């Protein structure tokens, strides 16, 4: 499950209009106070939509079934392969699920500000929930401007994966800690054919390919999304340094050669993934990749580490995102829905069992420290990052992922050599983002 970019993203225009077109008979906590919790012996049913499938859907269903230990007469129906577009359509038609699970934390600002996810603060306050149990970075991507409209269900943390054999063949004894070392090691582990075509890329810098996404890269360069006065802040030395680093590596390969190489690589969640097939020596990815490698490339000798940073003092920083859970506008049983969300987001045993099942990072401090959490050497990297207090979550705005798409598209043009003035280009992206936010009226 790759929440940041595997899900189909919610259309900006549709999400902005949700408040006007949403229907349904369920109660909304923001208007009438929190809905009452069901009695311990009360019979009720809940429908849960998620974008899980296959083995991961089975594991999440097990977690949902553990809810019946508290409410023996509850019936929970789990419908998988439901992306954000389907959740949005359900809300707009007046037929939403009771609980919606989304991989797309990019859209939390829209979910909260549009009212498509109900406000959870009344429930949190009524039940005395201690949100301090949740790491700060995880809390940041489940609320918007004081409106908590979602709770977390596990998280993803991103770091460096490296092929130990390839680094050793190049005389490298430890993974890179700085971006200067990453650049050097990438060149040393790259192999080209006599005709100049790339056989193995030491590191693939192509933006928007695999996990190369702007929010994942930004922390490692100290790049911030906003200026102190709240405007878009991409025209900065930090963002420029990030893009210049990527471009230097693109130019080393040659843009056309790199594109030909990339076109022949496997899909991100297939057995043909380039790292699995030893086509790249190093990459950025989340903790979930450890499970994919164990299943699909068990003979590959790899290591994990925090991703290299431009300044040594930044080392150990990183990006986190995760699955979020909300009560959609118009949900028929919001009181029971909250009890299920509270169970999935705060019950330590449930969190640990699910983390072990799908190899994601627990989203509470207690679960991170639980001795039952299965942690090997490579997974330990991501658990330590999650406990470091140095992670950063998604940038949250009322325009969903539009600002992320804007800088991603610009970075793609920059790498292709279509941008002549980097800072002027970044200033133009800032202007367009600020205009979109202003037009949203939020």
From TrEMBL:
UniProt cross-references to PANTHER family, sorted A to Z: MALTOSE-BINDING PERIPLASMIC PROTEIN (PTHR30061), MALTOSE_MALTODEXTRIN-BINDING PERIPLASMIC PROTEIN (PTHR30061:SF50)
Signal peptide start and end residues: 1-22
Region ranges (Disordered): 74-93
UniProt feature, compositional bias: Basic and acidic residues: 75-87
Protein name (record): Multiple sugar transport system substrate-binding protein
Stored InterPro entries: SBP
Family classification: Belongs to the bacterial solute-binding protein 1 family.
PROSITE patterns found in the cross-reference section: PROKAR_LIPOPROTEIN
Presence of the UniProt keyword Repeat in the record: no
Keywords: Signal, Sugar transport, Transport
Transmembrane residue ranges: none
CDD domains for the chain: PBP2_UgpB (cd14748)
SUPFAM superfamilies recorded: Periplasmic binding protein-like II (SSF53850)
């Amino acid at each position: 499950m790759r929440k940041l970019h595997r899900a189909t993203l919610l259309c900006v225009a549709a999400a902005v209009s949700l408040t006007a077109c949403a229907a349904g008979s369920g109660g909304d906590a923001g208007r009438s106070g929190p809905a009452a919790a069901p009695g311990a012996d009360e019979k009720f049913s809940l429908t849960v939509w998620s974008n899980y499938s296959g083995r991961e859907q089975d594991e999440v269903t097990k977690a949902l079934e553990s809810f019946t230990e508290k409410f023996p007469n509850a019936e929970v129906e789990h419908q998988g392969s439901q992306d954000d577009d389907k959740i949005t359509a359900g809300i707009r038609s007046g037929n939403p699920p009771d609980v919606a699970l989304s991989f797309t934390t990019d859209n939390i600002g829209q979910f909260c500000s549009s009212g498509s996810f109900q406000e959870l603060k009344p429930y949190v306050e009524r039940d005395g929930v201690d949100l301090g149990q949740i790491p700060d970075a995880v809390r940041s991507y489940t609320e918007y401007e004081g409106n908590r409209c979602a709770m977390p269900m596990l998280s993803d943390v991103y770091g460096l994966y490296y092929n130990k054999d390839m680094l050793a063949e190049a005389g490298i004894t430890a993974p890179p800690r700085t971006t200067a070392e990453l650049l050097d090691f990438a060149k040393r582990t790259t192999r080209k054919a006599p005709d100049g075509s790339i056989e193995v890329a030491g590191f693939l810098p192509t933006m928007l390919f695999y996990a190369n996404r702007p929010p994942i890269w930004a922390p490692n360069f100290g790049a911030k999304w906003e200026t102190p006065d709240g405007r878009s802040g991409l025209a900065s030395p930090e963002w420029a340094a990030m893009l210049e680093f990527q471009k230097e590596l693109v130019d080393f390969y040659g843009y056309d050669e790199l594109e030909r190489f990339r076109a022949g690589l496997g899909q991100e969640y297939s057995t043909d993934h380039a790292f699995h097939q030893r086509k790249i020596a190093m990459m950025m990815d989340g903790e979930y990749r450890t499970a994919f490698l164990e299943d699909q490339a068990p003979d590959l000798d790899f290591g994990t580490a925090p991703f290299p940073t431009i300044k040594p003092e930044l080392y150990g920083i990183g990006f986190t995102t995760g699955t979020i859970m909300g009560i959609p506008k118009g949900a028929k049983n919001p009181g029971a829905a909250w009890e299920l969300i509270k169970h999935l987001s705060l019950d330590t045993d449930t969190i640990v069992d699910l983390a072990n099942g799908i190899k994601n990072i627990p989203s509470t401090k207690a679960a991170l420290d639980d001795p039952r959490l299965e942690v090997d050497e490579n997974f330990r990297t991501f658990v330590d990052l999650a406990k470091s207090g140095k992670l950063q979550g998604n940038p949250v705005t009322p325009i969903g992922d539009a600002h992320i798409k804007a800088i991603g598209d610009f970075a793609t043009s920059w790498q292709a050599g279509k941008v002549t003035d980097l800072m002027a280009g970044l200033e133009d992206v800032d202007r367009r983002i600020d205009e979109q936010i202003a037009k949203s009226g939020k």
